[in-house]
Amino acid sequence: MDRSVVTIGRHIMDAERLYPEATGALSTILYELALAAKLIGREVRRAGLVDIIGQTGHVNVHGERVRKLDEYADDVIFRALDHCGHLCVMASEEEEDIRLIPEKFECGNYVLTYDPLDGSSNIDANISVGTIFSIHHKVSKGPRGSIEDALQPGYRQVAAGYVMYGSSTMLVYTTGRGVHGFTLDPSIGEFILSHPWMRIPAAGQRIYSVNEGNFSYWSPGLQRLVERLKGIDGSNEKPHSARYVGSMVADVHRTLLYGGLFMYPGDVHHPRGKLRLLYEAAPMAMIINGAGGRATDGYRDILSIQPTELHETTPLYLGSPAYMDLVDEFVGADPEPLVATA
Ligand code: P6P
User: Most buried of 4, 76, 116, 169 (most Cβ within 10 A)?
Assistant: First the structure.
């Protein structure tokens, strides 16, 4: 076997060996997530060919129409891990409440929260979508998991990652020792290490990413920041490039690779923004921080925020340090109440 080919399984095992106290539980969880990603990727790839595209007729907890692929992805992840014996509870974007481990299976000492298929409304247009996951230690005292295990701040994550179902299927994850990217080789069905030790460029290709359709609803500071990035605020700043897919995993992945700034801010209609803290902002913040970038809600490190509700949202700014300094300067100057309003 070509010794330069590192599969995700080998990478996970190599990382586990660095922790003498490791039991292999986290490795098993990560490996099962990679399996789930392959199954989800297979259905995403053929979504246009089989009757799995479109609506289920159901509406999820957020009032969003649930697509067949959403439900499929949610089910694949839950079933890939409910019997592994290493999780005490799961929480999914698709489920209102926490998902307890069935009584017939053993409980473990980890917690998984996940967005099974983020951006799925873009699938019909063949736009990249993704899975996002976050892993914590169990903190509750009972024999099985509880909501307390799910409601933990991002700095306590033991691992985080995402899968992007794009022109290729990529899995990017961190356990706190660097950020590593794997590309699925469909000819052998293996995720192969393609982006070891990922680092976000200090400034990068001068790209900012935000839905400018909401400009009139933004705070004055954010409006001034985007005017600066567009080179129209009189500062003679060379205009930056605007890129916005509208699929978080794709926009964050591009920001990680090319540098720049991704924003999903709060506004007068949605002061807490749209993206979910537990299974979207916090895992992406662990990834971006691990790659040398930063992630805030405009005022606080995303990883420091203590969740109070399973599906709470947060404004999100993440990217290269040079751009995050501008967020601090422009958005941080706005009065806090826009963010604090429930
Ligand atoms: P908007 C996709 O629906 C999603 O949840 C994220 O993936 C994406 O970043 C955001 O919403 C896009 O929202 O309001 O710009 O369409």
Answer: 116
Class of domain 8-195: alpha beta
In the reported structure, the alpha carbon of residue 239 is separated from the centroid of ligand 1 by a whole-number distance in angstroms of 24
- 239-262 pLDDT, tens digit per residue, is 999 999 999 999 999 999 999 999
Residue nearest to atom 12 of ligand 1 (CA): 246
For the full predicted model, state whether its pTM sits above 0.85. yes
Nearest CA to ligand 1 atom 1: 246
Atom from ligand 1 closest to the CA of residue 213: 15
Closest ligand 1 atom to 211 CA: 15
CATH number for the domain whose boundaries are 207-330: 3.40.190.80
The pLDDT tens digits for 162-218 are 999 998 999 999 999 999 999 999 999 999 999 999 999 988 889 999 999 999 999
Q: Are 313 and 270 in contact (CB under 8 A)?
A: yes
Long-range (24+ apart) CB contacts under 8 A made by 166-174 are 166/128, 166/250, 166/253, 167/128, 169/37, 169/38, 169/41, 170/194, 170/195, 170/253, 171/8, 171/34, 171/37, 172/198, 172/253, 172/256, 172/287, 173/30, 173/287, 174/286, 174/287, 174/290
Looking at the chain, which residues constitute the CATH 3.40.190.80 domain(s)? 207-330
Q: Which of 264, 269, 272, 279 to mutate to test the pocket of ligand 1 (most atoms within 8 A of CB)?
A: 264
